[in-house]
């Protein structure tokens, strides 16, 4: 029974996570289209000033000046490590110790370290090649996601990186956890000291648009209020230069996500990786339509430079005179709502001309999308990864073909949280490694890393970074994570309550207010689309039933969620807000390009218009203005983003005193 509860809890966490990623990709694609086919009408708008997408591909001398740190003085009162360059083992060890004791590295040293990292990454190849020998093993780490305690534990158990202790870190260093920047600075420091023995692969979270949603942007701006904007721009540049893969002894391939039927290491080795952009500002307008052996070409890209997007595959600029830009802000709301991104892309595809003109850039970006975003599946074949919204699912037949074609024996990848920290699949030819323990919740999973010697046999070291979690019994650990998962699931149910009621009413033609358990499960899945065993979850979600029937009106009212007490005339805007909380925060942070943390009423209105266009729904300007005034707490005519998002953060009443409930309920 405990194992069933554990697996069910895991399915809840993973389904909600992947649904969020799919939502992010849809919003990401929407941004990409807007940025390249619409221009702001007002020169006063922040959306007119987008320094990152204007200058990200500037010349080297521009970036050398932009990395400038000489004018930043380090005061005598600063008690953190004082670094000298070239970086030394002693210097990076001081950084590790400082972060261990929660000290912050001065902005001058952060910028200097980032400049040296950028200079080094520019001379590295897309695929790093590593050789083993009898005197040393290679250590391979998976996703860390800002969990500094996991990285420090790995170093404690395994030793610091050195020429005798080489490491491969397989991407997703940032987001979700609270110490992403510290992890980057430590890894960059060791990379500078041991460039032949420390290898960093890029992950799908090394992407500044993804960072807007999952916390890294907010973390950096919170820690470096004066220089945070520059640090973020430099990191965006650095992310684009991270290598894409590592190969050990010509036999073991390490990539973050995986492969597809069309993966070609020779093609990946030739890609200009820093020109394949994975943000909403890149100049591409091609949607990804992947089958097992099919990629659909699309229309031309406009603008400053031909650059690919990692969720859109660019084509050379062609027939620009036929593709005029339009102003988003000059369009009436009705036009925005009737306008279909898909229809516009199809129109531009027709204007794009012959497929041969777009093959080169399409193949490059496709290769990178697949290695960053893909997941393995047990069935043969290669299909679009519609669960995540990017990359593909590939089967054991694809593994055999791709590894055989490149004379490889093992594929090591990360990208998916595993309960034990690692997992084999595809006849033990694909190995997933995940190094962030307690990823979903305390006790949800162990972290792991791999040691591999010249025999190329992986040896696993598992760990649990949380001392509190190590002290819990299995029953207590399952109970803790189960309550957390159910709390997250109740939030999803709450924000979709109107859609749920409509779905329930379809099974209740006589308006009795009651439906069968089977209909309750079917309707709930049809709305949330999480692929969960709802009938199994029913006892934890529905407090009571009578004769196998669910009183759905009472059930909706009993969901233990509180709402903000705001005086708003149009309450429908609240449900839209709840349902699209993360999307709205991402749009806010895209519009707030100067990273001031606040936006004007007009920018707030534009944010909602963008969201309504994305959702193909309509909310009146009056309702938006009403909401803006109600949350302008200090009445200064602007809205603080963090205060706004916190005001609308849902609170689960059942979460109160959860620590005590764990001890009481599971300690018996």
TrEMBL record:
It is an enzyme of class 3 (hydrolase). It holds the Pfam family PPP5. Residues 495-530, 579-614, 619-654 form the EF-hand domain. Keywords: Calcium, Hydrolase, Magnesium, Manganese, Metal-binding, Protein phosphatase, Repeat. Its EC number is 3.1.3.16. GO terms for molecular function: calcium ion binding; Hsp90 protein binding; iron ion binding; manganese ion binding; protein serine/threonine phosphatase activity. This is Serine/threonine-protein phosphatase with EF-hands. It comes from Scophthalmus maximus. The lineage of its organism: Eukaryota, Metazoa, Chordata, Craniata, Vertebrata.
């Amino acid at each position: 029974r405990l194992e069933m509860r554990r697996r069910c809890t895991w399915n809840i966490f993973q389904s909600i996570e992947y649904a969020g990623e799919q939502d992010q990709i849809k919003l990401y694609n929407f941004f990409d289209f807007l940025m390249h086919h619409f221009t702001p009408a007002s020169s006063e708008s922040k959306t007119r000033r987008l320094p990152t997408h204007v200058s990200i591909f500037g010349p080297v001398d521009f970036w050398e000046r932009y990395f400038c740190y000489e004018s930043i003085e380090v005061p005598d009162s600063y008690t953190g490590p004082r670094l000298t360059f070239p970086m030394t083992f002693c210097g990076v060890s001081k950084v590790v110790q400082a972060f261990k004791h929660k000290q912050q590295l001065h902005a001058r040293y952060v910028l200097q370290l980032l400049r040296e990292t950028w200079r080094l990454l520019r001379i590295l190849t897309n695929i790093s090649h590593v050789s083993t020998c009898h005197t040393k093993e290679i250590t391979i780490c998976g996703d860390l996601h800002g969990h500094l305690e996991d990285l420090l534990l790995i170093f404690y158990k395994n030793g610091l990186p050195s020429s005798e202790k080489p490491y491969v870190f397989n991407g997703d260093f940032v987001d979700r956890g609270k110490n992403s920047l510290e992890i980057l600075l430590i890894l960059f420091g060791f990379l500078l000291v041991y460039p032949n023995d420390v290898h960093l692969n890029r992950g799908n979270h090394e992407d500044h648009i993804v960072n807007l949603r999952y916390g890294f942007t907010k973390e950096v701006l919170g820690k470096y209020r004066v220089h945070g904007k520059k640090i973020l721009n430099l990191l965006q540049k650095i992310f684009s230069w991270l290598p894409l893969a590592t190969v050990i002894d010509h036999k073991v391939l390490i990539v973050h996500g995986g492969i597809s039927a069309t993966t070609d290491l020779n093609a990946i080795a030739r890609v200009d990786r820093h020109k394949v952009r994975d943000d909403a500002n890149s100049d591409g307008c091609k949607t990804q339509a992947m089958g097992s052996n099919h990629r659909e070409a699309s229309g031309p890209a406009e603008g400053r430079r031909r650059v690919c997007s990692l969720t859109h595959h660019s084509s050379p600029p062609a027939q620009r005179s036929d593709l005029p830009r339009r102003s988003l802000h000059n369009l009436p709301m009705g036009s925005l709502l009737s306008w279909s991104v898909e229809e516009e892309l199809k129109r531009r595809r027709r204007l794009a001309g012959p497929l041969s003109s777009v093959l080169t850039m399409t193949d490059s970006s496709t290769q990178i999308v697949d290695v960053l975003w893909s997941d393995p599946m047990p069935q043969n074949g290669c299909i679009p990864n519609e669960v995540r919204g990017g990359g593909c699912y590939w089967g054991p037949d694809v593994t055999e073909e791709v590894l055989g074609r490149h004379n490889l024996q093992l594929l090591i990848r990360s990208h998916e949280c595993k309960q034990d920290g690692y997992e084999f699949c595809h006849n033990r030819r694909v190995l997933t490694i995940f190094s962030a323990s307690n990823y979903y919740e305390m006790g949800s999973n162990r972290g792991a890393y791999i040691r591999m010697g010249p025999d190329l046999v992986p040896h696993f070291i598992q760990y649990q970074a949380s001392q509190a979690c190590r002290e819990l019994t299995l029953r207590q650990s399952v109970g803790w994570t189960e309550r957390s998962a159910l709390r997250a699931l109740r939030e999803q149910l709450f924000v979709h309550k109107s859609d749920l009621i409509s779905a329930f009413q379809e099974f209740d033609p006589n308006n009795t207010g009651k439906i069968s358990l089977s209909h309750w499960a079917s309707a709930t899945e049809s709305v949330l689309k999480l692929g969960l065993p709802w009938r199994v979850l029913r006892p934890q979600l529905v407090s009571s039933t009578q004769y196998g029937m669910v009183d759905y009106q009472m059930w909706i009212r009993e969901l233990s969620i509180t709402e903000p007490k705001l005086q708003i005339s149009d309450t429908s805007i609240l449900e839209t807000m709840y349902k699209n909380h993360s999307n709205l925060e991402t749009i806010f942070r895209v519009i707030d390009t100067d990273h001031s943390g606040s936006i004007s009423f007009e920018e707030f209105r534009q944010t909602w218009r963008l969201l309504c266009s994305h959702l193909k729904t309509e909310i009146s300007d009056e309702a938006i203005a009403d909401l803006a005034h109600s949350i302008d707490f200090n009445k200064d005519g602007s809205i603080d983003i963090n205060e706004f998002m916190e005001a609308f953060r849902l609170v689960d009443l059942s979460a109160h005193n959860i620590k005590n409930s764990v001890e009481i309920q599971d300690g018996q």
